[in-house]
Amino acid sequence: MATPPAYTTVPPIFSLPDELLQLIVSHLPPHETVAFGKASKRSNKITYEPLVWRRHCIERWKYWESHYELSERLDAPPSQTKWQQLYYERSKVDHEASQAFNELLTTQQFRYERLETIARHGYDIKDFMMAQRDQTSDDAEDVLCRRYFADAILGQVHRTTALEKWQRLQDRQMVRLEEVLGSYDLFVLSGKKGDLNDIDRELDRLAQRIRDRDPEFDDLSIRMKALRVARYLRSENLVGNTNQEDYHALRNNFLSLALFEEPHTSLPLQSVAIYCAVARRLGVNSRPSNYPQHVHAVIEAPQNLTLDGKHKLFVQGAEPELMHMDPWRTDEEVSQDQLRLRLLQMGAPSTQHMHHLGASPTIEIALRTGRNIMTSVQEARERQRGTSSRSRGPDIEAAWYSMLWSMLVLGSSNLASDLHRRRQCLPYLIEHFQKHYPEDINLVEKHIPSMFEGEREHTILLHLITTARKADQNKKAPSPRDKSTENVAYKIGHHFRHKRYGYEGVIIGWNMRCTAEQRWIEQMRVDDLPRGRDQPFYNVVYGSPKSPPRKAYYTVLCVYPADYIIRADDKSTRYVAEENIEVCKPGETPSEDLLKLAGRYFKRWDPQQNIFISNIKDEFPDD
After folding, report:
1. What integer pLDDT is reported at residue 271 of this predicted model?
2. 556, 461, 458, 443: which is closest to 506 by C-alpha?
């Protein structure tokens, strides 16, 4: 008897027309899209459509490296890009970054090498790292170190971008003013809104708003356009500063803060930079001036037109017609006579007037910004010494770091002057790198030694880099607990307050005796302590009765309380005698500042045990 034919039951969903299946697929996440595509030839064809994978690409990743030319791809027909292949390429980057990141968190060995490998992907890992930093649960087993190192990687991605922009400027390549000045912002952002793309989009939006408000804008003369731009920016409070007492506030040096954060205050230089960037998008050739003490915008008429729009005969070598704006103070034109009078009052020689009234090279504006940041940081530190309130705004150490880098990378045509300035800045940058940004060893290696080729600093730098690389590659020498360390009363991770100075800290290392330099011992008057440098805090004897007991010294990470008057070395590592440590009581939670910094050494804070959970067990295995 013949076997009856087998009938395959078609899932009801495939009775739907293609249009409805496409609508369903448009709501599926990537993994379900792939699974649905495997169900049949018909579903595979639907899920293979470029539009499907273009949606997945733009929904999953906000940030893309420039070589992808994403804007051009989005403007082109979907079929011209292999969107599914692009999706898998980006997914592979995320997967590799995730593996390297998890390895980085588990051991100090090769930590900075792995961090460098991840950061090398640039903006392609920004979405992943922002998720690690901002979306890791407070209950995660390694929440502090995961957030800390994700932020460190984001910071290095941004700093790498900034240094590339400055290096292009130094090499006399085309870099827009807002990119050069926005590079300072990249040092203080660490992933917050305000990177170069955000600044670019906001300036585009402002220019479009001006054009939309005045349909006849494009038909106006250059003079009228220049005035309209200033009028709009001042009406929106995007330029200027109503609080003159805060003139040199650190936040006023950064374009992104002026554009995105209330109040929209800035220094004249940043106000002019915003004005020039918007004006340029509207067809106005505007650049910052060389004017001393207060930057103005210099607007230049086209070669064949006057500022008022009248045609004129082009003459080779003729000086262009100029006008000046001071958007920081007013939306009216500033007369050249007024500017010349001020120059005379300042004692500027008349032979220099045209130089001061003319447009400044972008590199000079960049260096001027660096000098302004230096002034603002110094003022901020002085304020912190004399006030009981913690200042809000950009991180002082990150801002100082940006200034140091700009002073090294950017230079004038005077090689001797550049070398002198770089020699002055180099020790400060190396100290800052070692203290706050040890992960930047690759940036130091890439940019700095070549600046000192043939100079004595070159050999010193190469030795420093080699030493730092070896320290990262080698396993940490363990300091186990045994009879010889039984006088070490406190553990790695103990949260404490300094008995004398009142700052908050956490223990990140210990020694059986003070191993600091003699200069530090004398400066801190260690020998004046009740037990000196070689006696125990507690009068406890161990080992041979004839051997004098010894004191433990601890390396600590500290932050000062908000009401503390002197905080010059906030967020620093310190060397503290045992007798100066007072462990915090149960229930006393570490400050947000300390929790953020502690991720470099610890996995999490354990409120039940009243201790930070160590992530440096390879160095202190029994703590």
Report:
1. 97
2. 556
Mapped onto helix, strand or coil, the DSSP state of residue 199 is helix
**Helix (H, G, I), strand (E, B), or coil: what is residue 467?**
helix
What's the predicted TM-score (pTM) here?
Answer: 0.88
Contact (CB, 8 A) for 206 and 217: no
Spell 469-507 as b/e; 16+ CB within 10 A means b: eeebeeeeeebeeeeebebbbbbbbbbbbbeeeebbbbb
Judge contact between 402 and 184, C-beta under 8 A.
yes
Cα(568)–Cα(573) distance, integer angstroms: 13
Give exposure, 432-451, as e/b (b: 16+ Cβ within 10 Å): bbeebbbbbbbbbbebbbeb
Residue 507 one-letter amino acid: I
CA distance 237 to 182: 20
Q: Taking the CB of residue 407, how many other CB atoms lie within 10 A of it?
A: 22
- The pair of structure tokens assigned to 179 is 């990119």
Q: Which of 552, 425, 606 is nearest to 615 (CA)?
A: 606
Question: Please, which residues have CB within 8 angstroms of residue 549's CB and are 6 or more apart in sequence?
Answer: 487, 535, 536, 539, 540, 541, 542
The whole-number pLDDT of residue 388 equals 47
Among the listed residues 312, 319, 286, 317, the one whose alpha carbon sits nearest the alpha carbon of residue 300: 286
Cα distances (angstroms) measured from residue 600 to each of 107, 127, 131, 323, 608: 11, 21, 18, 53, 21
Checking DSSP bridges between strand 602-606 and strand 333-334, what pairing results, if any? unpaired
CA distances from 30 to 20, 80, 329 (A): 18, 21, 53
pLDDT on residue 479: 87
Q: Compute the half-sphere exposure of residue 362: CA atoms within 13 Å on the CB side of its CA.
A: 23
Residue 16, pLDDT score: 64
Nearest to 162 by CA among 326, 405, 392: 405
Question: Which pLDDT belongs to residue 503?
Answer: 83
The residue among 169, 171, 104, 97 whose CA lies nearest residue 129 is 97
pLDDT per residue as tens digits for the range 400-447: 999 999 999 998 778 888 999 999 999 999 999 999 999 999 999 999
**d(C-alpha 254, C-alpha 484), whole Å:** 53
Distance CA 333, CA 230 (A): 9
Take residue 204 and report the two structure tokens written for it. 């585009």
Environment class of 528 (CB within 10 Å of its CB; exposed 0-12, middle 13-18, buried 19+) = exposed
pLDDT lower than 50: segments of the chain: 1, 388, 520, 524, 533-550, 563-568
